[in-house]
Automatic annotation (TrEMBL):
The keyword Hydrolase applies. This is Myo-inositol-1-monophosphatase. InterPro entries: Inositol_monoP_metal-BS, Inositol_monophosphatase-like. The lineage of its organism: Bacteria, Pseudomonadati, Pseudomonadota, Alphaproteobacteria, Hyphomicrobiales. The keyword Protein biosynthesis does not apply. One of its GO terms (biological process) is inositol metabolic process. Its cofactor is Mg(2+). GO terms for molecular function: inositol monophosphate 1-phosphatase activity; metal ion binding. Belongs to the inositol monophosphatase superfamily. PROSITE patterns: IMP_1. Transmembrane segments: none annotated. It comes from Rhizobium vallis. Keywords: Hydrolase, Magnesium, Metal-binding.
Length: 252
């Protein structure tokens, strides 16, 4: 197997355990002691325990690979795993199914492997660069039902100004698109890859929010543009159809 195939197989195996643990915590969430990291950003026991599990498996299976996670840190390098143990923590805590576990491998600023799980929805998406997209272990072709129903999703990073978010949403609405906000980049990117929306746009997000989703969207056939550093809230991403890029690309 190639390095991409090996890492993709490992990531899927790791996710099988991580999604089970995350779902267990979801059903037990009322007992959590909640901490607020920053305004509108929360962390719970689930975030830390799921990330610890993923890191242990990475160490056991791929001991030479570096890792960087939202809760336990690490430094971005030329090649590393990027972990978001519970993306959409607020959704998770409120009891909605719109949250996910994200694991992506980044090489020289480009995501080459990505696995996302939505445990409550029973959906796992995985992709490796040049290998296509899979849903629940089977090859998946992005299929858009009723393409005349135009919908795009916009992120809601606490560090992205209200004015900036509004500018994107107004441009989309003026062009005839409905706008969804899921409060979770992992949901936004995965739903675009599945064909539920025409794309996902967010500024001032972090690498762990988009590392897996960007390669998943690319392998689904969407055009993906993202740029930034590995510092917190420095990534901007558009993963969308060409029509959506034409509307909001100039605003990036």
């Amino acid at each position: 197997m190639t390095d991409v195939q090996t890492r993709l197989a490992s990531a899927n195996a790791i996710m099988a355990d991580a999604e089970k643990l995350a779902l267990k915590f979801f059903h037990e969430r009322d007992r959590f002691v909640l901490e607020e990291k920053n305004a509108s950003e929360f962390v719970s026991e689930a975030d830390r325990e799921v990330e610890a599990l993923i890191r242990k498996h990475l160490t056991d299976m791929l001991p030479e690979d570096a890792a960087m996670g939202e809760e336990m840190g690490g430094e971005g390098s030329d090649a590393f795993w990027s972990i978001d143990p519970i993306d959409g923590t607020a959704n998770f805590l409120r009891g909605t199914p719109l949250w996910g576990v994200s694991l992506g491998y980044v090489e020289n600023g480009r995501s080459t492997v990505g696995v996302i799980s939505y445990p409550v929805l029973g959906i796992r998406l995985s992709a490796g660069e040049g290998l296509g997209l899979s849903k629940n272990g089977k090859r998946f072709q992005r299929n858009v039902h009723f393409p005349s129903v135009r919908v795009a999703a916009v992120g809601e990073s606490p560090r992205w100004t209200i004015e900036g978010i509004s500018e994107i949403e107004i441009a989309l609405r003026k062009a005839g698109w409905g706008v969804a906000e899921f409060r979770c980049a992992t949901i936004g990117l995965g739903f675009a890859a599945l064909g539920y929306t025409d794309g996902y746009i967010e500024k001032n997000t972090s690498i762990w929010d988009i590392a897996a989703g960007s390669v998943i969207c690319s392998e689904a056939g969407l055009t993906v543009m993202h740029a930034g550093t590995y510092e917190v809230a420095t990534q901007n991403i558009i993963a969308a159809t060409d029509e959506v890029h034409d509307i909001i690309g100039r605003l990036f």
